[in-house]
Design a protein that fits this description.
The chain is built from three helices and two strands. The protein is mainly α and 89 residues long.
């Protein structure tokens, strides 16, 4: 699920991907294909794969909550706090 705090980054990444697709299409056709044509083609050919990858990365991104996220695991493990031993003389 896309959280509001991730929305701006998500939109800028989306535009970057579409512009990258536009550049590749334009290079292949030896002419500027335009944003609309690139956007339509990207929606048809790339969007599902990109969206799935992007949402997965947003959902598995580590959150600073005192919980250690183990990669490739759906369960988080609490971080153990180790007490420092102090020497007394």
């Amino acid at each position: 699920m896309l959280k509001p705090e991730n929305f701006n980054g998500f939109c800028s990444d989306l535009l970057e991907e579409i512009n990258r697709h536009k550049w590749i299409m334009s290079e292949n056709q030896h002419q500027d294909v335009g944003f609309e044509a690139a956007f339509r083609d990207w929606i048809e050919t790339e969007s599902q794969k990109w969206l799935a990858t992007k949402l997965q990365s947003l959902n598995t991104a580590p959150v600073k909550t005192g919980v250690k996220v183990v990669k490739n695991s759906t369960k988080a493990k609490p971080v153990k706090k180790v007490k420092k031993k102090t020497e007394t003389t």
